[in-house]
Design a protein that fits this description.
The protein is an alpha+beta fold. The protein folds into 2 domains: 173 residues, Clavaminate synthase-like (Double-stranded beta-helix, 4-Layer Sandwich); 93 residues, no CATH class. It contains 5 helices and 18 strands. The chain has a 7-stranded mixed beta sheet with strand order 1-2-3-16-8-18-4. Strand 1 and strand 2 form a beta hairpin. The longest helix is centred in the last third of the chain and has 15 residues. It is globular and about 55 Å long. Bound molecules: N-oxalylglycine and manganese (II) ion. The site of manganese (II) ion has 3 residues, from loops.
Length: 280
């Protein structure tokens, strides 16, 4: 049976039916998956049961795999493109990355020169409560801005920094960090998708530090306005994870956030990323 494509929300996302990664996905079906991915920015392949090798081989059909990136305080193997996203502990120590709780809206790798184009998460063990991942469509967010705001932000650049470890504070005070200590990079506030040509907002609450060359108060105000706008539920699809769900999303036109979940539940996801180009 050929694959099916069922949209998941008005904002973004589609579920792919009749696709079994472990059994193998043919050329024609994969072309349709890729087409759906470009159209909906997130595709969900439910009910998968895959090894790391099968995940890697499937990921490589979307582009060149990015090297595994070591986060500060995890202890997993460095020899793979697979990252363990989990709160699992061995001998009282975390063995994975992004271990606990909420992660505010962000775009993976925005603090690097060539941010990853895509991220794939395979749900080995989702939580029974919380831990949903919500995605925001940044093309819609850009397109729905008033003309005067578009004119104001076109051509602006923003500084982004690696702030996973600072996690959540209501007013982002945790961002008062020394930039020489963490990865950081400057990118356009509005980027153009290299495949679809659509423009998208490219700032986010977790990682964006400031608009370059703008007075601090004005920068803070403009960013607060943009965050409020882009986090509008009308642009968001929230995914409730089921075991075996395999999601691949496009970081070039989406932001994502992880909801809080109970620390006494074990959550295990396997992640890989696809290389991207410098945003323009
Ligand atoms: C990530 C991420 C969200 C999640 O892997 O980049 O943001 O649901 N994960 O764990
Ligand atoms: Mn992320």
């Amino acid at each position: 049976m050929p694959i099916t494509v069922t949209p998941l929300s008005p904002a973004l996302g589609a579920e792919i039916g009749n696709a079994d990664i472990a059994a193998g996905i043919g050329e024609e079906d994969f072309r349709d998956i890729l087409h759906a991915w470009h159209r909906y920015a997130l595709v969900v392949l439910p009910g998968q049961s895959i090894t790391e090798e099968q995940q890697v081989a499937f990921g490589a059909r979307f582009g060149v795999l990015a090297p595994w990136s070591q986060f500060a305080d995890d202890h997993q193997s460095k020899n793979s493109t697979i990252m363990l996203v989990s709160n699992l502990k061995e001998n009282g120590e975390y063995i994975g990355s992004l271990q606990e709780g909420e992660i505010q809206f962000h775009s993976d790798g925005i603090y690097t020169e060539e941010p990853v184009a895509a991220t794939m998460l395979y749900a080995v063990k989702p939580t029974t409560h919380g831990g949903e991942t919500a995605y925001g469509n940044m093309s819609l967010a850009y397109e729905t801005l008033a003309a005067d705001i578009k004119a104001r932000i076109d051509g602006l650049k923003a500084l982004h920094a690696f702030t996973y470890n600072s996690l959540v504070t209501a007013d982002n005070e945790a961002k008062m960090i020394g930039h020489d200590q963490v990865s950081h990079y400057v990118h356009p506030v509005v980027r153009t998708h290299p495949v679809t040509g659509r423009k998208a907002l490219y700032v986010n609450r977790l990682m964006t530090q400031a608009i370059v060359g703008m007075e601090e108060d004005e920068s803070r105000e403009l960013l607060a306005f943009l965050y409020h706008h882009l986090e509008n539920p009308d642009f968001v699809y929230q995914h409730k994870w089921r075991k075996g769900d395999t999601l691949i999303w496009d970081n070039r036109c989406l932001v994502h956030t992880r909801r809080d979940f109970p620390p006494n539940e074990t959550r295990i996801m396997k992640r890989l990323t696809i290389k991207g180009d410098r945003p323009f």
